[in-house]
Amino acid sequence: MASHETIPIQNSSSFLSTSTIVALCVFFALLCACIVIGHLLEENRWANESITALLLGLCAGAIVLLIEKGQDSRLLAFSEDLFFLYLLPPIIFNAGFQVKKKQFFKNFTTILLFGILGTVISFCLISLGAFLLFKRIGLTTLTLQQFLAIGAILSATDSVCTLQVLSQDETPFLYSIVFGEGVVNDATSIVLYNAVQSLNFNNIDATITLKLLGNFLYLFFTSTALGVVVSLLSAFVIKTLYFGRHSTDREVALMMLMAYLSYLLAELLNLSGILTVFFCGIVMSHYTWHNVTESSRITTKHAFATMSFIAETFIFVYVGMDAFDIEKWKGSNASAATSVTISATFFALVLIGRAAFVFPLANFINCIQKRDSNKIEFKQQFIMWWAGLMRGAVTIALSYNQFSNTKKISSSDSALMITCTIIVVLFSTIVCGSVTKPLIEAVLLRNRKTNVSDATDIPSLEEDLRQLFFENGDSSGQGNNQIAPRASSLRLLIAHPTITVHYLWRKFDDKFMRPVFGGRGFVPFVPGSPTGADDETSAAV
Amino acid sequence: MASHETIPIQNSSSFLSTSTIVALCVFFALLCACIVIGHLLEENRWANESITALLLGLCAGAIVLLIEKGQDSRLLAFSEDLFFLYLLPPIIFNAGFQVKKKQFFKNFTTILLFGILGTVISFCLISLGAFLLFKRIGLTTLTLQQFLAIGAILSATDSVCTLQVLSQDETPFLYSIVFGEGVVNDATSIVLYNAVQSLNFNNIDATITLKLLGNFLYLFFTSTALGVVVSLLSAFVIKTLYFGRHSTDREVALMMLMAYLSYLLAELLNLSGILTVFFCGIVMSHYTWHNVTESSRITTKHAFATMSFIAETFIFVYVGMDAFDIEKWKGSNASAATSVTISATFFALVLIGRAAFVFPLANFINCIQKRDSNKIEFKQQFIMWWAGLMRGAVTIALSYNQFSNTKKISSSDSALMITCTIIVVLFSTIVCGSVTKPLIEAVLLRNRKTNVSDATDIPSLEEDLRQLFFENGDSSGQGNNQIAPRASSLRLLIAHPTITVHYLWRKFDDKFMRPVFGGRGFVPFVPGSPTGADDETSAAV
């Protein structure tokens, strides 16, 4: 040991910058700690991994700040590139890969309504509220464009935390609505935010709404199509060349790389990478996953979940540490009272903005639903409202993007906007995150039997399908099996649109897609399926 | 679609820099192409994934250069951080994780001899050769320190390519020697390179060699110990808290994170991260891997292999693309003839430097080995010499580190050194990489029966062990089972050191390690073991 000290030899890390290694060490040690603590708190219903990570990140941030004696430390800086390029894609891909597809597509109309119209309503209300209230608080330097940006920033819900708080198994209906809304919300937020960035506010006319809607539809359909095309390509390549013959690793590598490539291509083509990679995950779990060897199936299922889990935990540690970035707090000259007032205003606007679309839209859906079992109860509406209140890393990233390099308003007001956004994110994640699980238990699961929609929607669907097959069996028995099913399908499409679409899709899948792209189709049970054994098994032919 | 064009809306990639996305897209598309082509060429014995990746990288580099019209492109730049922080650790960890442990430790003395003494011999010869020859070629600006650096740079063998070219199943002995040497070589190279960087050449005395040796030993033992400690900690935590109870993903995540953390800690403490993460992999596969659930075992086995595979392919694509970084070629004003002469000199020095230690050291080992079956035949020596000729990304990284920012010699000579290093790397990888497999088939496998050492070492070891247990059984039958085994162990230690160490280690493992850290011990067969079914099974108790 002594010899090491006396020889004037440089250290091996001369290849690497020490600050990078220190930062990585701290982050990875924190991640390990989060996993161990998360495991120990598993039985605790108030805590979860997100909150543990956030609190650990806050502690670490405070310690780093003390060590650095209040100096700026690059360790704490939030990087948009890191977040959007490396952390978000695995999370969203895994969500698509493990989502219960039938539940998701069954509620597709509701999801679209919430994700598009809901986000727009929330955006308008928050912008308007900020515009009316901030003048009174004393913030006068904000422009109209800034107010609209605030609306877009605070309308971006956090899909990551939703995934951790809601359980796909316990409350599949709520999960699919709130999470699905979060994914669609991303595309809407991007369109709104970018529109706000570039619209000419001196020249607003009525056609602008139509143009925005057109732009959204373009973004939605092209992003989805890209994800579907890339994943079908992966299914086709793996099926045709039969990679499993030589190596399991190549199959796994190809699935990972092509999933990530779909995200990168979407970003390159200026589409919504989140939508693309989400649909890529859905289609991959339907086709590609069934074309690979058994080992690859187990590996991909768990490896994708693990990567997503690490990325989620990383984001929360990161957001926690970022909160102590001293430069931001120095930049804003506002008093603590002003910061708290503005943060409270922000959060109140988020609460109202979400209430303003969840309850009306849910009741609107209830009105057009004929069947009682498909209606959304008030209790469920309440949980939908509450579970979507969390704001996360997307909000922080957008806030940095808007306010960190702006020259239009005073730098102190910019810093104030960023710090208040961080306060809202921390508050909503910690409070809403910890209260949601107990709230769901108290409101929904305690009187499970009365909760019709969440408990019985799968049996009711099964019943519908049995009806459908009974009718088809009838018509094919009469010999005219070419025309009669189509006629009955059309009739069914009007009576039960979702179920009929599902039935037609399955026929199409069996006839045209599966021969080319593989996949298991709709067989009753595949052990270790990424979406769980109960997915689609109830609809087994 | 038209609406998208007419609205003045910014695109979604405003959060991300376009150049990063383009670079990532190109790399990931190339990786996918490599996997598909590698699969199609699997039966071809001349080609392998490394060469495919290198050639694809070269093609892509040429195309990028054409598109950029000879301008500098950041797409092509080689980053030491990316290589040492993100690409190298998964490869070396996986090598440790999947290495056949018994074979590796059986040849440990040979590996150490080759890795330490061999690298030093090669370093001295290459430095001396460069010093004597380069003056004649016309390179006069190089200092003594530069010549020694060249020696260290060209002595760094490429473990990554070795892994791809040698097969652990076909030639386990060669694999363990050449790959093990590559891992130890890394620690030696770091010590040599850093010593060269910082030694004061005006004040060299005899004690410097001793000091360097002391420094190496310090580096070797602390790095190994760190890897062992971190992996034992992971085994202990996973065994004690029983993570599998709640979640497979946490187990997998914890294994990944702690493996990477061991590398980061080693770099932070100025140790050899490669040695640390390699031993971390070995110990993790012995203890931690057996403490997790069945799904986690399959997942980690394939996920680690896949990540390593992706990283390897990435490195070769990267090195290929980097070769066309036009700035370097512009910087060196030398004619094509000079470049070729220097590159040829480099490669000749590598050939001689390796020959100068492989053959003498192998014969030295043969002399001290009493048993004929343990001797290294000339054919094997030849393959050992040939298979270790490849130079890879480590050489390029060290070369950049040495010559890219130096102010001591003219910039044209620096650029010349870098470009010649790249030529040597490309040439050695393509030529040695493609010829090694057919060469092994022609030299070793054709007359498999005469190749005693590689074919029969496991049965002979088994015989030794049977002898050993027979003796122990005898002594315990006499009632003095406390003293007699120890006495016979001591006698055996002198007669058969490797086998006795192995036996003692197993007793220690069963008695003290396994109760604390778990692991399977030495049971005959574990399905899907990362080191293959035949590892340690022959020595089953």
From TrEMBL, chains A, B:
Entry-linked Pfam families: Na_H_Exchanger (PF00999)
Keywords for this protein: Antiport, Ion transport, Membrane, Potassium, Potassium transport, Sodium, Sodium transport, Transmembrane, Transmembrane helix, Transport
Keyword Membrane attributed: yes
Record organism: Hevea brasiliensis (Para rubber tree)
Any GO BP: regulation of intracellular pH
Topology in the lipid bilayer: Multi-pass membrane protein
Top-rank taxon: Eukaryota
First-listed, main subcellular location of the protein, grouped into a coarse class: membrane
Keyword Transport: yes
GO molecular function terms attached to this record: potassium:proton antiporter activity; sodium:proton antiporter activity
Name used for this protein in its record: Sodium/hydrogen exchanger
Family: Belongs to the monovalent cation:proton antiporter 1 (CPA1) transporter (TC 2.A.36) family.
Reaction(s) this enzyme catalyzes, per UniProt: K(+)(in) + H(+)(out) = K(+)(out) + H(+)(in); Na(+)(in) + H(+)(out) = Na(+)(out) + H(+)(in)
GO CC terms of this entry: plasma membrane
Cellular localisation: Membrane
